[in-house]
Request: fold
Amino acid sequence: MTGSQFLQIMKCFTGESLRQAVASYLFPLLLFYSAMIITLAATVRFSNIPEASSYEIAQRAPVEEAARIGKDELEKSGIPLIQGEIRLLFGAVKIPWVKFRENAVRYFESMLVFFTSDAVGLIFALIWTAGFIPEFLQGFWWNMLRLRPLSTGFMLLGKTFSIVIVLSLHGIILIGGSWIALGIATNVWNGLFLWSFAILVVQFICFYPASVFLGTWSRSTMVAIIGSIAFWAICWMVNHARISNLSATTAESSSGVAIWLIEIAYWALPKPIDFSIILSDLMGTIKEFPPPTAWMNAFETRNIIPFASIGTSLISSVVVLWFSCIELKDPIKE
Amino acid sequence: MTECILKIENVSKAFKTNRRSKIQALDNICLSVPKGAIIGLVGSNRAGKSTLLKLALGLIKPDSGSITRFSKPVSDRSTLKHIGAVLESPVFPSHLTPTAILHILGSLSGIATEDLSQRIIEALTKVGLEDRQEQSVGGFSRGMTQRLLIAQAILATPTLLILDEPLEGLDFDAREKVRDLLINWRQEGRSVILVSHELEEIEALCDRVILIANGKILRDEPIENWRGNSQGPFLQKAIQLACANTTPIG
Reply:
């Protein structure tokens, strides 16, 4: 196969997956979800929240400066405390705010990533894409594809990566759209928020192969949906158990065997909590809006190593994809 | 000696109906397909014709025996680039258009990128779908779907066409087109295995006719032997006679 033929095949699969995505019965729901997130970002308004540049004190908001030097000293210096509001949904939701505008935007973004690229966003993506592989492998169409002189494993991988591309396009619209909407609404353009796109795609690459395997094995969308959510939940629990063990006292910790089993499972599986922490760090919000204490301790004591965490998660996804290709080879199933 | 492009030797295949019993779909089948021949495969429903085609295409594995295509084992997927197939009960993804479907299948068949668009237009024109290129197949009639199925089979101009009921659902004009296509195919030195209940088509097109019943080949002879001294349609009567004389071949 030449390079241009390979590109042609990937282009075909991507076009097919795009059409499949648009024709999916979940697509209107996805559009609604994306519109809701972007609209929420567009409705952010600030009342009495200044930009940091309008204050002469270095980096710290007045409330933090007051904590450092005392409220009386702050008053003597003539620096007013901020008493503002973040308003969402055209004023329907009001959140008191005592820091700068930039802090407010980062706060909002750290909430937003939960719905775009962290737990909820990822699970939504897994649900949306769960039916793609079972549909691809459905009786007649799959037989048509199997009659081509290419390995079935290659076709499955090509289809899988085309779905990753489609998901990435969705990510660009959702995350890019939210960033632009928030930037226009607040006049604060925080480029670090765009790391959430990278984390969404990498997490999806790590977790989607489980859906691919289940879809290949069962040829059922429902099995792929339930199974991939269950897989994510198991990964989350293993990740959480490992972090808990790291921060537990001797009396609280699990037995030696359990610790080892959890450690092995941790390295073998994708790590959703690690991804959350890595994303917070990339966005620069990990100290400003820290995660739960145990998670923060695990990160600060270097028990979570980003490259190792991401690398081993990707390796596990390659292994699962390999099993999917093996599962596909049995012509007796057809 | 004419080159043999498909050889099936002592092939048997059974399917489980439940835990304890199975149906013998094919029993010790032997046949060969030379280059440049149109072979007709006839028999009643559940005789084993479609099973035989699926085995030849490698979609299912035989329980015993061997199958070679172009002198290579059936597991060698590279030989598929020389084969086009029309299978039963076509259901294409409804969100795709004929152009998109042929683009995917053509790319996967190894057709060069620069040739693909032209080939797609030619294939769709040959089956009369040139004005439906960008219409989603979800809105296609049975006949249009069948024509698309034929278009994808001929797209890569294969050496061997395997056709399972290709005329099903087609109107008179479309049947004429397919008939002409198959005649041209043979003149170009390509081969066809044609499964059809339309015995007039089999009589008109095929060089050789194989009768399958209950998973066995009852008769495998050139069309002239089937015709005998008949002037008009002959195949139906000849098949009835062959089934009455139930000694299978092989």
The mean pLDDT of chain A is 88.
